[in-house]
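Sample pair:
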Amino acid sequence: MDQVELLKIYAVKLASRLGENQESIEFIADSVTDHGIETMIVEVIKNAKFVKVIYDYEGSHANKKLPRRNYASVSVSIEEGYSFDFSRGVAYTYFPDMEKLLEQL
């Protein structure tokens, strides 16, 4: 399965974890690579009838921490339980074994 489809599927799963009285929640998953540590930070934010799921990327390579940057975002319909409006962020990178990384969330 390609990474865009995985991000959409997990956006729906993560949006469903948002409690009725919660406005937002954050999840973090790390992956150790040959180059350093790659971190995916996911913010789930409620907004009226939909939830915005924002995937951010933060890396640490050669003992230097890279700035947190937007990787992708997905909107999820709360009532219908489906994703829409996928957009790619500026932090384009390839997460190896993305499914294993997303399973940590």
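The first strand starts at residue 24 and ends at 32.
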